Amino acid sequence: MLAYYSRLALRSLRRNPMLTALMVLTIGFGVAASMTTYAVFRAVSGNPIPDKSAQLFKPQIDNWGHDNGRSSDEPPDAMDYTDAMALMRAHKAEKQTVLYPVGLSVIPANPQSRPFLANGYATYTSFFPMFEVPFKYGGAWPASDDTQHAPVVVISAKLNQRLFGGANSVGRSMNIEGNSYRIAGVVRSWNPQPRFFDVNNTQGFKSESPEFWIPFTRAVDLKIQTWGNNNCNAGSPPGWVGWLHSECVWLSTWVELPTAKAVARYRQYLEAYAAQQQQAGRFHWAPNVRLRNVTQWLDYKHVVPQESQVSLLVALGFLVVCLVNTVGLLLAKFMRRAPEIGVRRALGASRYEVYRQFLAEAAMVGVAGGVVGLGLTALGVLGIGMVFDPDIARLAHVDVSLMLLTVLVAVLSTVIAAFYPTWRAAHVQPAWQLKSN
Amino acid sequence: MNLQVKPIFSALRHHKAGTLLIALQIALTLAIVCNALFIIQQRISLLTRPSGVDEAHLIRVMNGWVGASDKDVGPLMQSDLDTLRRLPGVVDAYATNATPLSGGGWATGMHSKPDGKGKRVQTAIYFSDAHTLDTLGLKLVAGRNFHASEVQGFLPNDTLQPPQIIVTRALADNLFSDGHAVGKVVYLGKKPSTIIGVVARLQVPWVASWASNWEGNSTLVPRQMLTNGTNYVIRVRDGQLQKVLHSAPAALLAADRMRVIPDDQGVVTFEQMRAKAYKSDRGMAILMGVICTVLLAITAAGIVGLTSFWVGQRRKQIGVRRALGATRHDILGYFLTENLLIGIAGVAIGGALAVGMNQWLMHAFEMQRLSWPWIAGGVVVLLLLGQAAVLAPALRASNVPPVVATRSV
What tens digit of pLDDT does each residue of A123-169 get? Predict the structure, then answer.
């Protein structure tokens, strides 16, 4: 029976090609606009580390208060050296790390190749297990290298390709800014988006993966400046050491707390630490600390760009208008066939049969709209680079799930739009229609 | 024209669903189009802000010396600047930490009293020398340029409190309402800085919304940042831009190979920097424009579709009316008026929806308040669109001959 209704639907749709084309295009545009913007939204609002986002926490300590006319009640986003080192020494979490971005020149062994700039992080070895960094060769450096300020490095597969042709380079050495580092591990391609662990310096998205990691302690010894933001609420004493002991904030601190109990304990510890700083006279305000997990932190920092949210909303509004439009067109189309419906009903078709016939016709429009929508979505995703930051545009892509969703949304929304016109069609009075003819 | 409002109402009562759908569609379209156009206007007003520098003739080269310690940097920078200034086609060059449109730099509070006391204004800090005004093409509106003797090196983590500074007019007006900033004293830290000059305009490095309240507040300090990463800004003569884009990095590498000029974004024109800085603003305006256009087209098509259906349905009644003496003009007027009535109902709801949507966007995304002219403009556009869309079916209706009344089918 369904096949028969499909044939009927085709015949009917062919009878008014303009109206049919209009409906298909309307659905196609509406769905494509929504799906294109959804592809971006999906890419930017994803969870970068799903199985651990509730266990990784970013402690914040207010070391600025309301000094110098600062009005915010939130602690600074980043941490100063004094507090970060205090948290590392206290070792109150199962794992903890401090990190800051660095940009350094890598000098290839081959004198023919020119030095080049690489972006990386100075951090502690816990970084790798905490953030589930996958290794291709070797692994994280041992904790003793942190305490010994050792010249070790973990590099990306891309850097390994460039310097060693992709061979296992563990144990070999490389030259960064004139200093030799021993390679401890090579990371498989790894670039979580958003870059939750360094939102402070990336606004969340960065298409180039980090290329190397060196021990934080070594980087501080070498006085390597941060490649990211340094915020001071007051002038800092001169020199590197003066800056380290200033209240300038430039570090990201992360702790891993697997249970609710551990979280509560750590929160207490932070409060106590801040209270102690207040007693010591360093803070002249009550303890003001935060402990947010990855999801809460990304929410707080509004990592999902406004452009993405506004355009998704506008596109959804656009889809609603397209649907209202489709309701109107289907109504016109179905009601024009009132006499035909009257004849069918008079010949014994039940209302149920009329429902099936017209919903089948709507579903066909939906499928055609979905196909048009697929093409337009593909075009839209290609054109995303024109609208969004390249770091974000690169994340959006068409995959099987997006294609299925496109067709599904098209068919579903068309069928929903068809409910009212179909209901009207099913309630056509056969006697009245036959008489008026 | 004789407005036949009453018969229209009674006819519409028989087409409640269709009437409602058209009105709803017009309402939603108005709400979305008003807000989208408003977003476009806001974005365009952002990206047409001048940076204050001679963008058409400027190039930025990012340079990093390999393995140079901070004390080596001063002489290296001086020799690089000599190399660049001697290049054919180059007007002038200087080294700095940041430029307008670059999106990264140094921002700080400037105070009227020492140690962060007194009146505070936010400002961007641009490291400069005596060549900066000439290179960027900045117009000095009061005071003087830096003397070469005032320019000093600045090590990372030094305290920034130069005795002389040049500020923008916007910053001067923020600090001193009397309009005479030259000779006045301000504080970046403990020690005083005297304003020796005022330039007409120089935008801060950031174009994002968080800096929009102080986007004209810039300060030039006579300091050279002695770190192993710096930006060279080069001003070229007319028509020499492409040549210098290649010759500048080549000359630098020829002078000293132990340096890094990044492949990506290492050598860019200010026009490229502008395009990159405002990419998402321009993109958003384009996207909203496309959505508005398609939306208006679809709404118009929907009105054409439904009205055509009504015309088809009422052929017989139209024939009767024509037979009873109605002119073509009357029939045309009937459909136009009918559409106008539905349209007015639609825009009334739509205006309220537009304001509601704007309120919500203001709450959620810090948008500005939609002003009445935007809604009024949207109302006019949609009413005209409705009339234009209904014209073709209405003309077809007016061509229905009276003889139709006598036919049975």
Answer: 999 999 999 999 999 999 999 999 999 999 999 999 999 999 999 99
Banded pLDDT at A391 (limits 50, 70, 90): confident
Task: Show the CA angle centred on residue A176, arms to residues A170 and A182, nearest 5°.
Answer: 25
CA nearest to B46, candidates B262, B245, B210: B210
Structural domain harbouring B348: 5-47+280-406
Helix axes B328-365, B5-12, angle to 10 degrees: 60
Confirm whether B57 is domain-assigned.
no
| pLDDT at residue B386 greater than cutoff 80 | yes
Same domain? B253 vs B286: no
Any CB–CB contact under 8 A between B262 and chain A? yes
pLDDT tens per residue, range A35-83: 999 998 988 888 999 989 999 999 999 999 887 667 788 999 999 999 9
> pLDDT tens across A219-244, in order?
999 999 898 888 887 777 888 999 99
For chain A, the C-alpha Rg in angstroms (whole number) is 31
Q: Which residues between 407 and 426 in chain A have a beta carbon less than 8 angstroms from any beta carbon of chain B?
A: 420, 424
Looking at the complex, report in whole angstroms how far the Cα of residue A259 sits from the nearest Cα belonging to chain B.
33
Which tops the pLDDT comparison, A400 or B406?
A: A400
Is B144 within the bounds of a domain?
Answer: yes
Within a domain: residue B290?
Answer: yes
A328–B21 CB contact, under 8 Å: yes
Q: Is B10 on the interface with A (CB under 8 A)?
A: no
- For residue B209, the tally of other CB atoms under 10 A from its CB is 14
Inter-chain CB proximity B28 and A307 less than 8 Å: no
DSSP for A284-350, please give it.
Answer: -S---EEEEEHHHHHHHTT-S-HHHHHHHHHHHHHHHHHHHHHHHHHHHHHHHTHHHHHHHHHTT--
- Nearest by CB to B158, from A238, A306, A317: name it: A238
Q: Which residues of B touch A425 (CB under 8 A)?
A: none
Strand ranges (E), A24-169: 56-61, 95-107, 116-123, 135-138, 152-156
Please tell me whether residues B164 and B213 are part of one structural domain: yes
d(CA B381, CA A323): 22
Q: Where are the domains of chain A?
A: 2-45+306-436, 56-300
Does residue B32 form part of some domain? Answer: yes
Chain-centroid distance of CA A78 in Å reads: 21
Asked if the model's pLDDT at residue A112 lies above 50, the reply is yes
DSSP B148: G
pLDDT at position B1 over 80? no
- The DSSP secondary-structure symbol of A74 reads S
Are B82 and B207 members of one domain? yes
Give the strand pairing for A56-61 and A289-293: antiparallel
Phi and psi at residue A124, to the nearest 5°: -105, 160
Residue B387 CB coordination number (10 Å): 17
Of A234, A238, A327, the CB nearest to B21: A327
pLDDT band at B353 (very low <50, low <70, confident <90, very high): very high
Co-location of B188 and B83 in the same domain: yes
Q: Are residues B80 and B152 in the same domain?
A: yes
Residue B130 sits in the same domain as residue B41: no
pTM of the model: 0.83
Query: Is pLDDT at A388 greater than 80 in this prediction?
Result: no
Residues B309 and B211 reside in one and the same domain: no
Residue with tokens 């014209």: B391
Distance CA B52, CA B199 (A): 9
Is A67 an 8 Å CB contact of chain B?
yes
Mean model confidence pLDDT for chain A: 91
> In B225-244, which positions are buried (b, 16+ CB within 10 angstroms) versus exposed (e)?
bbebbbbbbbbbeeebbeeb
ipTM for the assembly: 0.82
pLDDT digits (tens, 9 = 90+) for B4-22: 678 788 878 877 888 899 9
Please count the structural domains in chain B.
2
